[in-house]
Amino acid sequence: MKLYYSPGACSQSVHIVLHEAGLPFEPVLASTKTHQLADGTDYYTINPNGYVPLLELDDGRKLTEVAAIMQYIADQVPDRRLAPPNGEFERYRLQQWLSFVSSELHKTFSPLFNPATPEATKATAQERLLKRLGYVDRELEGRLYLLAERFSVADAYLFVVSGWAVAKNIDISGFANLRAFRDRVAERPSVKAALTTEGFLK
C-alpha cells in the first residue's frame, strides 16, 4: 500500500492508524502547496481533488477521505480492535465521532489555514472551535479515549485535528480532559513513528 500524505495534515491520522495496524505501507509525500510529489509528478494525476490522504492499494484501487480510509484499515486487522465490528452499536458510535471530528472540527479549522480569510471570519471560527472542543472535553471526562477504554481510529483523528489548535494559538489550557487525552495518545509508539517520518520528532 501507499499512503499519500502531507506533514501535519489530516493524513497524519491515517499515518498513525497504519502503524497501529502493523500493515506494510509506503509513505509518499504529496505537498498540499505545490501539489507535486518529490519526483515532480503532478499529484492531481493521482487524486483529482489534490488533497490528502489517499490510500493506494497494491492492486491499484484508491481510497480517499479520512473516515473511509481509517475504517478500511481497521477492518483489515480486526484483532487489533481499532474499530468495533460492523453491525455493533459501538461501530455507529465510532462513525458518530468520525463525523463530528470531520464536520465540526476539521472543516471549522479550514478558514484558519487560509491567509485570505478575513479576521472576523477567523474569530468566528475560533469561537465555534472552542465550543466544540469544550464539548469533546466534557465527553472525555472519566474516559481514556472517545470509546471509553480502548484506542480507536477516531482517537487518531481527534489527536491530529485538536493539535491544530496549538498550531493556531487557540488556548485549550482549560480543557483538562482533552489535554490529558492528547498527552496519552502522544506517547503511543504509532504516533511517535508517524511524527518522526513527518519530521516533527527526531
Automatic annotation (TrEMBL):
Keywords attached to this entry: Transferase
Q: Identify the Gene3D superfamilies for this entry.
A: 1.20.1050.10, Glutaredoxin
Report if keyword ATP-binding is assigned. Answer: no
According to the entry, every stretch annotated as the GST N-terminal domain falls at 1-81
GST C-terminal domain residues: 87-202
**E.C. no:** 2.5.1.18
The GO terms this record gives for MF are: glutathione transferase activity
SUPFAM superfamilies attached to this UniProt entry: GST C-terminal domain-like (SSF47616), Thioredoxin-like (SSF52833)
Q: Indicate yes or no for the key word S-adenosyl-L-methionine.
A: no
Q: Which Pfam families match?
A: GST_C (PF00043), GST_N_2 (PF13409)
Q: Which PANTHER family match?
A: GLUTATHIONE S-TRANSFERASE GSTA, GLUTATHIONE S-TRANSFERASE-RELATED
The protein here is known as Glutathione transferase GstA
Q: List the source organism.
A: Piscinibacter koreensis
Q: What is the lineage of its organism?
A: Bacteria, Pseudomonadati, Pseudomonadota, Betaproteobacteria, Burkholderiales
